[in-house]
Amino acid sequence: MGISAVALISYKILEGTGLTMIIGSFGASAVLIYGAIKSPLAQPRNLVGGHVLSAVIGVASYQVVNGQIWLAAPLAVATAIAVMHATRTLHPPGGATALIAVIGGASVHKLGYLYVILPAGAGAVIMLLVALLVNNIPKTRKYPEFWL
Fold this sequence. Notes:
With 148 residues, the protein is an all-alpha fold. The chain is 69% helix and 0% strand.
C-alpha cells in the first residue's frame, strides 16, 4: 500500500511535471517498514532521517565533484553511511537514495536539492503514514517500536 501511494502520486498526479515521488530505494524501505517492523532500521527516525540525510549528501556529492559520477557515487554512499551512523538514523536504503541522486540521470540532477524534499522526504513520510496504519491493524503487531 505504501508503494502504491507513492506510485499513484508519482504517475497520476506528478506525471508531466518533471517531478517524481518514487525512487528505487523505497522498495527496500518497504521490506523493512512492512516486513521487519521491530528492526531498529525500520523505525520512523531511521526511515525519514536516513532518506533525507542521504538525499542531501547525494546531491551535494554530485555537485561538489562537478558531475564526475565515478567519484561522486562512492563519496555519496560512504558519506551517507557515516552520517547515518553519527546521527543514529541508519537505514540501509538511504545508501541507495544517495546513490540515486548521483546516478539518476538528468531528470534527477535537474531537481537539485528539491530531490531531498520530493521524492526522498515526502515519499518516506507517505510510506511511514501507511506503515502506521497497516502495521497496527493486527493486535499482535505494534509499530513503531520507538520514534526518536
